[in-house]
Specification:
The protein is α/β, with parallel strands linked by helices. The protein has helices at residues 11-23, 34-43, 65-73, 86-91, 108-124; strands spanning 3-7, 27-31, 50-53, 78-82, 101-103. 43% of the residues lie in helices and 17% in strands. It has a five-stranded parallel beta sheet with strand order 2-1-3-4-5. Strand 3, helix 3 and strand 4 (78-82) form a beta-alpha-beta unit. It is globular.
């Protein structure tokens, strides 16, 4: 059963997306901040197959969540989710054009397919 680290600062979205993923049989580890996500990954040694994250605001301590999550990116595939259209996210420099992306809100079928595709892409990438 793949484990998804779900990083989102909005509790309602984190709960809704997490429940949809659990219904599909995924193990979901919810995190409300980059620091919390890093803690789950590094301190608790949770096996993480995919990081599903939005573009979160600054942490309470003033750091951007990307700083905390940066150490994960070299080891864990990432799937970005946002309300912006993919093209707009690329134009704003928020994601790389090849990055897996999920536009919100999405129906459960799109969420399932996008997560499944991101996990398949991750399993096909070479291990460093």
């Amino acid at each position: 059963m793949p484990t998804i680290l779900l990083l989102d600062d909005q509790e309602s979205r984190r709960d809704a997306v997490g429940q949809m993923l659990r219904n599909e049989g995924y193990r979901v580890v919810p995190a409300r901040s980059g620091i919390e996500a890093q803690w789950f990954f590094e301190r608790e040694h949770w096996p993480v197959d995919l990081l599903l994250t939005g573009f979160a605001p600054l942490e309470k301590d003033g750091y951007h969540p990307g700083i905390s999550v940066g150490s994960l990116l070299a080891r864990v595939p990432i799937l970005f989710m946002a309300e912006l259209e993919r093209g707009e996210s690329i134009r704003r420099g928020l994601i790389h054009p090849a990055a897996p992306y999920l536009r919100l809100p999405s129906p459960p079928s799109v969420l399932r397919r996008t997560v499944r595709d991101a996990l398949a892409l991750a399993s096909a990438r070479p291990i460093n």
